[in-house]
Structure formats: structure tokens, C-alpha cells
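We close this part of the discussion by returning to an individual protein. The sequence in question and its C-alpha cells are set out directly beneath this paragraph:
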Amino acid sequence: MLVMSIILADFGLFSAMQPLQHVLRAQGSLRQGTLASVSWLLLRNCRAHSGLPSTACPSPERQEDGVPKDFSSRLATGPTFQHFLRSASTPQEKPSSPEVEDPPPYLTVDELLGRQRKVYLETYGCQMNVNDTEIAWSILQKSGYLRTSNLQEADVILLVTCSIREKAEQTIWNRLHQLKALKTKRSHSRVPLRIGILGCMAERLKEEILNREKMVDLLAGPDAYRDLPRLLALAESGQQAANVLLSLDETYADVMPVQTSRSATSAFVSIMRGCDNMCSYCIVPFTRGRERSRPVASILEEVRKLSGQGLKEVTLLGQNVNSFRDNSEVQFNNAVPTSLSRGFTTNYKTKQGGLRFAHLLDQVSRVDPEMRIRFTSPHPKDFPDEVLQLIHERDNICKQIHLPAQSGSSRVLEAMHRGYSREAYVELIHHIRESIPGVSLSSDFIAGFCGETEEDHLQTVSLLREVQYNMGFLFAYSMRQRPLVSP
């Protein structure tokens, strides 16, 4: 990628009228083989963004008079910088379904197509995984795959996994053992069965899964679902394939999730991915990456489509949904400071600017006044007064708030890096109930955290009694090994 960056940087120094061959002259000190290794990327970009016919962007295999062209000859007759600029005023027609991007040099377009192979998807874990399943299926459907609910007729089995607790991972190991007999039975058939692990478990364990279970053909982390057609193509050749790279900007904003149930009356809408809170017990920042939010416009477009389909309820999703911050447009990047709940702090440098959660919630609630709006899962620190006021005022925003406490002991909360004390949390509870009369409250609690004493536990019990939640989710602490980070 360093070579690629140098080439493109120097390419930008030449005038729009000079041909691409000048790049080669400017990089004469580089080996021709190195340039050839990135030529397919340049040519792919040409085909994707220029208004020229395919003959103007020759493929590396093109011949003239039966004699293969060398790299210099192909480059000399290639596109100029002006050809790349021309695409700005010449919109290109999108290819008909199935949609496949230009393949890498070791695969053909046909190999990236699903060719009506049947995919069976199983989802484990949280609501984000339900939404991820819909995103993955949307991508595969566009590549020509078919969906099946019959495990026995599947050509591809994909498990969308959870890694938040040890029990969740053990469930997947057990499921793989159950699938081993089916895979062995199909090993000598015309279409061998391929099995893939998607999501957080793939991201956390990586090669351990491939080494421990040779029957697994592919891994895809939460930010790699766009790469599923390529990974499946590699798996079809008999290789194990993996992409567990985390992204700083992937939100799948342009991917419309495909609803798994035609009779559904509600849907999840992902508005952000990742988490920056770095709570000491949580692995989410390491399996789903840093926080990044979808543009407001793309979220509203999805909600409008769901409303048009007759859905009556949407739930806005995110690991820390109410810390939403859309910085996709320059005009959004103002210097307005972040407003936190009183008595709460962050584990990171306070962020500024962007369209915040209150703005998004306001806009979403206006799309369809008859559509109910929920959101999960929030962090207590991100409940400024404008959010509470909006929930109170809008009839279609459900008067229900999930407010994870995790512990009733200030000492344990400090060890968890939660950014608040018991007293601050209780004050927020009172403020919410004053702002939204009749509000329904739910919470999460962890029992048996590292160093927790009997007194700490009794403080948690007393908090449950004091607040009188409408619903609670209680879990025994499960230690998670975090990935090692190089200094």
C-alpha cells in the first residue's frame, strides 16, 4: 500500500492532459514487478470511474496481434488523469443484479457470484447481531445467493456469533460439533458444504477458530461483511479464508438490511457501530471497534422505507446509541461541546460538534407520527435534558428507557470504569422520572465482578429495591481475555 500511495501521490502532480506513462518515468527507481502488482488496482479504478469503453481500459491479459503486451506498453496506452475526472459529470449505470465489484487479480467475476447457492443463517446474541444478519444477507443476495430455512439443503452455513460471555462462545463450539456430521456427509458431493463464523467471536478468536475447527471455511468480523462474496469464493477453492479487520468508518450506511420476516411489524435500524467507553469488563471495543455513526440522511431514508412497508415500530440500535454523533458533513463540525448527564464523566477526551442523538431522535419521530420509536442500548452518561424533553413531548417515542447500572456500589463502578457513582446514577433516575412521568425503566447488572465483596453485592441489591425497575437483566461476571495490543 505504500507503493500504491506513492504512485497516486505523484500521479496527482501531473497535469490532467499528461498520460499515465509519466507515472512510470517518475517512479523509474521502482521495480517493474512492484508496479505491476498494483496495476490491476489502477485499471479497476479506471473501469469504475471513467466514461470510456472497456477497450480504453485494457485488462492485463489483453493481447495485440497475438503478442502479450508488457506492463509499460499497457500503461502507455492507458487512461489519462482527465479520464478519472470525467466520471464526475458522466454518471455510470449500475450493473444489473447480481451486483459484483471488480474482482482481485486472483479471482474472476464469475467466481464472486453466488450462482444461486443456498445460504442458511443462524443468529446468536444481541439485537446488533440480528441487524448484522440482515446486512450480511443483503450483501449476499445482491451477489446471487439464495436464502434457505432448511439446514439440510444449505450450500453455505453462516453463524452470526456473540462473544460477550464465555457461555455464548461455548454455544457456538457446541453448534460446530453438531454440524460436523453434516459437513462430513457432504464432503464428497458435487457442492461441498461451506461453514463460516461471522461477528464478534470471529473477531476475538481469529485464527484460533481455524486451527481448532478445521471444518470452518471462513471468518468475517463485524466490519467485513462486504467481503463475504470474496471469502466464499476463496472457500470454494478449498482454502480457509478470513477478514477480521476493524474499520474506523464502516457503518454499512448504503446497505439496506433485508427483513428476515415478511410478517414483521417492527425492525431494528443500526445508527452507529463500536464503542469508546472502554469499561473494564467489556470486550465490545475490541470486537466491534471504535465508535462511528451513520449519516442522519441514510438513517431517515431507511426509516421512511420501513414506514412505507407498513412497519409500526423501529428500534434505533447502537452499542452506545445515545452517544450518536454525525460528523459526515463539514457544516456539522461545529464547536458545540458535548452535554453529559449531571455528575457523569467519560473515559476519553470529550468530543465536540456533529449532529447529536437529540437531533436524530427528533427527525426520526417526524417521519411517521404513527410509528413507535425505541432505542437501545444507551449509556447513562448521555442523557442531556434535550433528549429527556423530546421523549416526553413526542407521543410516538416510547416512554421506556434502558439505563444500565451494572452495580450499586460506587467502589465497583469505579473499578468498572463506568464514569459515575451510585449517587450520580440515582440522581439521574430521579431526574428522568421528573422529566417523563410514568416512564418505564430497565437495567443491566453484573454479579461477581473482580474484587466485589458481600457489602458491594448488598449495595446492588439495595439499588434494585430503591429504584424499583420495571425490568432487569442480571448476569454473572464472565472474564474475557482482551486481544494483546502492540506498544
